[in-house]
Amino acid sequence: MFPAIEDALEALINELDLYAPVTIGAMPPKNGICLQVVGGGTNETFFDMARQYNINVVVNARHDDLLQAETALSKIHYELPRRKVFPSGDEWEILFINSASAPNYIERSDTSDFLCGSSLLVELYIKGGIC
């Protein structure tokens, strides 16, 4: 289920036409953007065992121009929370996306690229079984 959610988030971000397509997993070696689910948990469980669930997703950027990296992450944090329609799957549905940690400068790498980080809070509805 979580790989499908990561794929959906990747597709949403790639719709924003940033300087590079987002990838899932480790930071790309040059001028890239990546995302990774890093945790989460159940907020509420319903009678049919459906759940309201939050996941934390880090979104990081690397670029040789700091402004490019910061602008890309800022666009993600501006556009995704404003959406009114989100993807869903057979077992899950994205309800909301909010900023958990605003885009920020992390460091300059050994290759002189700027590394910036941020995180999103993604609220999900995990569908339950039939009672």
- Number of beta-strand segments: 5
Structural class: alpha+beta
Shape: elongated
**CATH C-level label:** Alpha Beta
Task: Return the CATH topology.
Answer: STM4215-like
What amount of the residues lies in strands? over 45%
Number of structurally distinct domains: 1
What are the secondary-structure elements, in order, as H or E? HEEEHEE
If strands are numbered along the chain, what order do they take across the biggest sheet? Answer: 1-2-3-5-4
The whole-angstrom Rg is 16 Å
Unreliable runs: none
Overview features:
STM4215-like; 5-stranded mixed beta sheet; single chain; alpha+beta; 131 residues
Verbal overview:
By secondary structure, this protein is of the alpha+beta class. It has one domain (2-126): STM4215-like (2-Layer Sandwich), CATH 3.30.2000.30. 21% of the residues lie in helices and 46% in strands. The protein has two helices and five strands, in the order H-E-E-E-H-E-E. The protein has a five-stranded mixed beta sheet, with helices on one face. The longest helix has 14 residues, at 66-79. The radius of gyration is 16 Å and the shape is elongated. The two termini are 22 Å apart.
